[in-house]
């Protein structure tokens, strides 16, 4: 898989290249019970 969700809820994305280092990523989330989509989820940045 290209990502891992940690116990803390953080999303760890694998295979990020050097050229991606200054990009910002957004994550789309879906509520498990209602199916409601939340966009955008809190903003993330590459480290």
TrEMBL record:
Among InterPro entries, the record links this protein to: Ig-like_fold
The protein's name is Uncharacterized protein
